[in-house]
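TEACHING EXERCISE
Course module: macromolecular assemblies
Task: Read the component lines below, then compare them to the predicted structure of the full complex.
Student: A.B.
Group: 4
Components provided:
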Amino acid sequence: MFPNECRVLVVDDMAAMRLRVTNQLTTIGFKQIEQAGNGQEAFDLMMKRKEENNPFQLVISDWNMPVLAGIDLLQKVRAVEEFKSLPFLMVTAEGEKEQVIRAIKTGVSDYLIKPVNIDALHQKLITVWKKHNP
Amino acid sequence: MSAIKFERTGNEAIVNVEATEMLKPEAAKEIMDRIKAEDAKFFTGLKWVVYNCGYVGNVAGMCFPVLCRLASHLEQYKIHFCLVGSNKITDIIHKQGIERMVIPCASMEAFYKQAGISQNTNKENVKEFLNTTLESVVSSMKIMLEATIISSEVRTIDSSSPIPKIQIGAIAGIVSSHFTGNLIIGFTNEDFKAAMTRFLQMEVKEITNEIRDGVAELLNVIIGQTKIVLNDRGFDIQQVIPNVVSGESINIQPANKQKAILINYVCDFGKFFIILTTNVPT
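Instructor-supplied answer key:
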């Protein structure tokens, strides 16, 4: 499982949802959590932290967002060499097959369909960790 | 000021422009300007714009060039333009040879037939949407709010029905290949604080801006669940991001003669309601 010191970025345009996921992550044990309100904000913050030699080690992102959607963020992230194998979890209300396939093709680590409770999030993080650390 | 009533209501794959007096060129231009002013979101899922002049039965001849320009503008969005009116109007359209751009129909029923919209089938689809939504509300709230929910009342409402006043709610447009409508969720402040205390797993004493958009997220997830189920059955539901409404005392009422369905819910943290309005008669 991800260590508690893992730097996590939570991306969602709904502030309440960011707060919910952040609270869930805190309960799970994570200590370093930052938030972004859309994909572009998230990408800029990721690049900034990378330049500071303090990159995020896990991204949890919504799909439907203004400015830059989660899937577009994922695409941009995967285009950066250092982020090619960064754990990226998509949490979204969009659960249709085509969208899941699109996310997988774009390189998502895993996918969670809302509503998500803390147990489901925890389990999925264990799966993502194992996937990236076989 | 024209006497045109312009709203994307009713079938809502249809923009119904009802005139209460003969359509004059300036009024036709107003329709065009107002439709042109809409942003791309407005056109999502829209297939028809209908000008229903059935009540007045006539259109000034000088309007037709404007209506043709309007039809041409809509064509780029793959939206058809239909003029519903008397046989006289139909004759004029045919005489002018513009029936491919301005499609004439003698009545709204004829329009539904022409557009391939079956009102009975749509009723069944709305019923299926409603039933799926009812299930989505219960399952979503159970996970998001750890709440056991019971629907205490389901009833149809109209503009004169008594509806509980709320202080916070969210509204989302729903566009599908079968019907269009709005789904609304409403809470009192106290019930919303109790709901958000569950949602955020922290005590919510005050409804800040950050907390406020939780109501939109609840609705977003409910519709998302419904969409997953029904899009597998060919509903092709497209959802518009919900908008939050809040105030001292909000009264949500269906517009004009439109009917809607209200579902009151009771649960262990309080109460809330869902309203479904559609273009299909309930």
